[in-house]
Amino acid sequence: DTAVSQTPKYLVTQMGNDKSIKCEQNLGHDTMYWYKQDSKKFLKIMFSYNNKELIINETVPNRFSPKSPDKAHLNLHINSLELGDSAVYFCASSPGDRNTEAFFGQGTRLTVV
Amino acid sequence: EDQVTQSPEALRLQEGESSSLNCSYTVSGLRGLFWYRQDPGKGPEFLFTLYSAGEEKEKERLKATLTKKESFLHITAPKPEDSATYLCAVLHTGTASKLTFGTGTRLQVTL
After folding, report:
1. Which of A55, A92, B8, B111 is deepest in the core (most CB within 10 A)?
2. CA A32 remoteness from chain centre
3. Mutate which of A23, A27, A98, A103 to disrupt the B interface (most B C-beta within 10 Å)?
4. CA-based nearest residue to A72, from A108, A7, A26
5. How far apart are CA A65 and CA B111, in angstroms?
């Protein structure tokens, strides 16, 4: 059983397109996250949701919009994709917003051409 | 702002050759220090959480220790399957949880 699953695993798209990445966790966790890992492997938080409520919104362009329909799902929609958006995006979850033993998905490699 | 620095950037060991990875941090009010392992093409896998200076945790050939300024991940008699990137992250006191990661140490263990 996959604990945190993301789809798709790979995404290649043209500049200017809009795309979404989906994430689901079956761990019963209250908090979910989106992280971005750049080409130098640096992992940086983008967003965090606790029980469907946005609690962290780092300095991310507003072309990125997270949506949490329920506490087991956190999707990431990206408008007007740019070359610089190319990276690996990781979804993660943890039991609560004060207990950050986070479990990560396998990542979505986004390539914008 | 929280800062996490890991060294060395890359480390090559022979099987059985023990060594340590370093994670130095500057954070206002440490709430926890985390070690993760990341294999190529996969997400980070949780290894340890350390909460206070002097704490130690062990798992197989890995042992993590914590002081007020840094953490070490000691690898005893490593095997090729220990090859991976090891990431350190800190969590500081505040209203919301936010892991701040270091850039990792890429470990290669050869026969």
Report:
1. A92
2. 9
3. A98
4. A26
5. 47
